[in-house]
Amino acid sequence: xxxxxxxxxxxxxxxxxxxxxxxxxxxxxxxxxxxxxxxxxxxxxxxxxxxxxxxxxxxxxxxxxxxxxxxxxxxxxxxxxxxxxxxxxxxxxxxxxxxxxxxxxxxxxxxxxxxxxxxxxxxxxxxxxxxxxxxxxxxxxxxxxxxxxxxxxxxxxxxxxxxxxxxxxxxxxxxxxxxxxxxxxxxxxxxxxxxxx
Length: 197
Known about the structure:
Layout: E1 4-5, H1 9-30, H2 48-55, H3 61-65, H4 70-95, E2 97-102, E3 106-113, H5 115-144, H6 155-190
Antiparallel strand pairs: 1-3, 2-3
Helix pairs in contact: 1-4, 4-5, 5-6
């Protein structure tokens, strides 16, 4: 049987939520100071970043005035990851074939088959690894700097505005790493050549 793949509903939901948010976030970071308070692009789209820049100084005036390149660098990587995720979704959406599956009657599903499936899953797996790694780096920068950019917050502000939103970028991409990684391993096991003596 050839290698096949279709995105899980969780992956589709995460893309629907995360990709627009990443675009919004990346534009904010890459177009600072115009998107910051006082900039001509700030109102109305990036007005919430006034509060977020006060919660996380990496996004605020402190880091910008200090010339920190981390915010823009991580946002540039967000763009790269998003392009990879969009390639995966585009490959499935445009290159998938409809198959009939007997679950509850005859249900049609779209799946990628063969090398197209393998390439799309490998790209998505790589992007998910990048997302998790970059998010862990973001958290570790805070840890090793003595919480320089978020340590001024009270517990509830930190939980609501930093830990939960940033935690989502650890949890869901980690789940995708597992899903895509499992798919790749299953594909490799199914097509593995016989062991040579």
